[in-house]
C-alpha cells in the first residue's frame, strides 16, 4: 500500500466507513476510507459548500415471494436517503450534488451476481434522483479500497487483494428492525 | 368508480416514490404522488383523499409544514396523516404529533406493516 503525499503538515483523520454506515464531513483533514467487495460505496460532494459524504451498502436478499434474481432495494434507497439528508442538514443542496460510485465486484464465480445488482441499483438511483455521476469504478472481480476526502471531493480507488475483504453475503431484511409503525 | 382507498404519498425522492407506488398499488390502493409539501397542497386543493403519507425532509414545504396546513384547512383536516421518515428522534416525533400527525413509520419501510397501518387509520 502506497502512502498519500501529505497536503499539509497536520495529520489526516481517517474514518473507516463500514457496511451500513453513512458519514458526512467538511473537515479539510478528514479522509473516509472503505474496502469493498460486492458492496457499493457512494461518494457525494457539493462543491459550493465543500462538503462530502460516503455510504457503504449491500442490498438485502428479497423477501420471500420476490423474483429470485431481484434484490430488495428498500435498504439501498434508505441508506442513500440517510446520506442525502445528512448532506442537506449541513448545508448541501440536492441539485448541486455530484456522485462517484465504487465497488460492486463479483468475487466468487458461480454465485449470484450480487455485485452487479448492487451497482445497477446505485446507477439507477442516481438517474432517478437526477444526481450527476462523475466517475464510477464498478464491477469486475477484484476488491477495492476507496479513500475520499470529503471537503475536497477527491477520491482514490485502488484494487486490493480480495483477501482484505471480509466478504459478507446478503441477508434477508429483518422485519422487526424496519418499518416500525407508531400510531399517536 | 373505484372503491379503492385513495392514498397521497409525498416524498422528494423519486426512488422512494417508486417503492411506495409499487407497495401500495400492488395492494389495491389508488395512489397519487407529490414530490414536496407544496405540490401536495396543490393536489389536495382539487382532489379527495383517504390517507396521506408524507416524508419530513423535503424542499419548499417540509412534512411538518404540510401537516400544519392540512390540519388548519377545512377540506382534509380530518384525514389521517402518516409520517414516513428516516428520522426516529423523539423530538421530531413529538413535533409531528403536535402538528397533528396520526402516526410515524420509520424507513426503510416494510410493505406489509405499511399497508396494515394504512388500512387501520383509514377506518
Automatic annotation (TrEMBL), chain A:
Entry keywords, A to Z: Chemotaxis, Hydrolase
Q: Which domain of life is it from?
A: Bacteria
Database matches in Pfam families: CheD (PF03975)
Keyword Hydrolase (UniProt): yes
Enzyme class, broadest EC rank: hydrolase
Q: Which reaction does it catalyse?
A: L-glutaminyl-[protein] + H2O = L-glutamyl-[protein] + NH4(+)
According to the UniProt entry, what is the EC number of this protein?
3.5.1.44
Matches recorded under InterPro entries: CheD-like_sf, Chemorcpt_Glu_NH3ase_CheD, Cytotoxic_necrot_fac-like_cat
Supply the CDD domains for this chain. Answer: CheD
Does the record bear ATP-binding in its keywords? no
Q: According to its UniProt record, which protein family does this protein belong to?
A: Belongs to the CheD family.
The record's annotation in HAMAP family points to: CheD (MF_01440)
> What is the role of the protein in this entry?
Probably deamidates glutamine residues to glutamate on methyl-accepting chemotaxis receptors (MCPs), playing an important role in chemotaxis.
Protein's name according to its UniProt entry: Probable chemoreceptor glutamine deamidase CheD
Look up and give the organism this protein is from.
Alteraurantiacibacter palmitatis
Automatic annotation (TrEMBL), chain B:
Highest taxon of the lineage: Bacteria
Query: Transmembrane residues, as ranges?
Result: none
**Which SUPFAM superfamilies would you find in this protein's record?**
CheY-like
Q: Which residues carry this modification: 4-aspartylphosphate?
A: 55
Please name the PANTHER family in this protein's record.
CHEMOTAXIS TWO-COMPONENT RESPONSE REGULATOR, STRESS RESPONSE REGULATOR PROTEIN 1
Ranges where the Response regulatory domain occurs? 6-122
What name appears for this protein in its UniProt entry? Answer: Response regulator
Keywords assigned by UniProt, alphabetized: Phosphoprotein
